[in-house]
Amino acid sequence: MQIHPMWNDFPSLKEDLPKVIQLIDQHIKIRDTKIRSTLKEVVHAGGKLLRPAYSLLCHEIGPEKNKEKAIAIAAALETLHMATLIHDDVIDDAATRRGQATLQKLHDNKFAIYAGDYLFSMSFTILSKYSNSLSHLEYNSRSMEKILIGELNQLHSRFQSPNSVKSYLSRISGKTAQLFAVSCYTGAVESKATRRQARNAWNMGHYIGMAFQIIDDILDYQGDKETIGKPVMADVQQGVYTLPLIYAMQGSRPLLEPILAKDRPFNDDDLAIISKAIAEQNGIEKASKLAELYINKALKELSKLPDGDYKETLYDLTNQMLKRTT
Amino acid sequence: MQIHPMWNDFPSLKEDLPKVIQLIDQHIKIRDTKIRSTLKEVVHAGGKLLRPAYSLLCHEIGPEKNKEKAIAIAAALETLHMATLIHDDVIDDAATRRGQATLQKLHDNKFAIYAGDYLFSMSFTILSKYSNSLSHLEYNSRSMEKILIGELNQLHSRFQSPNSVKSYLSRISGKTAQLFAVSCYTGAVESKATRRQARNAWNMGHYIGMAFQIIDDILDYQGDKETIGKPVMADVQQGVYTLPLIYAMQGSRPLLEPILAKDRPFNDDDLAIISKAIAEQNGIEKASKLAELYINKALKELSKLPDGDYKETLYDLTNQMLKRTT
């Protein structure tokens, strides 16, 4: 099975992550061959598998190592992530995700809604089958609620004038950081890590998630169709105002506000004005600085965890995030 | 709190069902007041609460009566049902559900997708908080998967020429009967009913669900906007071919096939032809007979359960289903 080339540098994950995908694949039990193969395509679409990777690594924190269980939990988390991606695609009506035509463009939004729901249920099936206790499961479903509140908030704030860094951070905290935090936490807890270690893992995951989303939002202003798998400046087109733009607004509000009030899609001139304002106000640099700050907070939490190979790997992986271009 | 007037005849349910709604209401913890109140409106929209009612009644089967737990499980089941309704509405693009403007028409489909997801997560939170064991939870999430496979199948079969009664029954078995079966089963199991009793409860629920959906599908051909809360012949407009039409096809295929191949929406003439064909082929009567058969199978399962007031109530409630007009 082909996984993202980034894992070539991490042998243990290169071995385990395909097992995560395989387990998800095996859980798809649908008689209809067309529906089944469509869902399996989604599962094999080649995401980066960062959440399961962090979960697997954090399963090395505690004394109880159970590879089968660790892989199952990682699979449940990735399935949850896939479910939210599918629904996000319907909502964004994005033409492509990960460089491929999205599910809903192929089989329409309707299919994508139930397909997301199906993966959602599957994630809970896998968790309840392998998890240690009901309280962990409650924890997971509560976290999922928070993620969806984050999504609802983001939806609700679309096309509202970008206001403050604080509200942006609170939004991505629910939307992205939560699932990274849960991934690290669940991996740790199921290995019977101490409460303090589990808390460190949670915090580390939270900070990594914050940095990840900020960098993702930066890339939306930077990348091009070849290097990142989605169209550039998709967020602003969809009324999602992220950190670089929020920084730009702080200095160029009179210029930007009338542009943002226009009907979508923006034309190239409008997009150029927005880009220029962000460049003039150092929006990308400021956002990058904040991402770096979160990475450093994450590394500080990491430093409190017990030594071991996994810790080196977590260190490398997390540092690498700052350099990512896709 | 106002619940459906049908419960006036069932005092214990009239007392308990508002508590189910209240518990769901209490679990909605969203800071944004607009999002919160929109979701609470959905919760209080006044569904019939049949699934929680059956679950509460089946909690009387076993020796361990825990009203608080029974209400929580009923709440989880109704929350799951609400989540699927919200997503069904997006998919049907139905203008009204339960006589009110649907969520997605008010706040667009996007909101409805995440709102459904949120309720979905909430249902698992409630279940994991109150359920006896992980294996019950695994059971519930697997059932949910089956429900969604049923939905995906129905979606996939839309606009395909209505073929056989058998495939229709298999479709509604996944889509509707599964959740009725789970409701009865979970209620029974959490009261520590015997395995055999739990099996009887499951079967009863399954048969009730089959009858319920057949009658629902009949009403779509019969009702009018005043008595049932959705537009008449909505199913056929949306390419969902249900039992009355399948029976009509058995005798009037040459007449109906060219009509069904037309673009939607149908005009009144087309709808009149479809109605006439169903009447001529006794589609409604035949479907009603099958619903009655399922009710009788349900009552047979019921007769095997221990005596008690709950049993009388289950008998009355299930019999009443055949007479429902909304």
TrEMBL record, chains A, B:
Entries under PROSITE patterns matching the protein: POLYPRENYL_SYNTHASE_1 (PS00723), POLYPRENYL_SYNTHASE_2 (PS00444)
Gene Ontology BP terms: isoprenoid biosynthetic process
Keyword Magnesium in record: yes
Coiled coil regions, renumbered to chain: none
Matches recorded under Pfam families: polyprenyl_synt (PF00348)
Transmembrane segment boundaries: none
Cofactor(s) of this protein: Mg(2+)
Family matches, as InterPro entries: Isoprenoid_synthase_dom_sf, Polyprenyl_synt, Polyprenyl_synt_CS
Keywords tagged on the record: Magnesium, Metal-binding, Transferase
MF terms in GO: metal ion binding; prenyltransferase activity
Homology family: Belongs to the FPP/GGPP synthase family.
Protein name (database record): Polyprenyl synthetase family protein
UniProt source species: Natronobacillus azotifigens
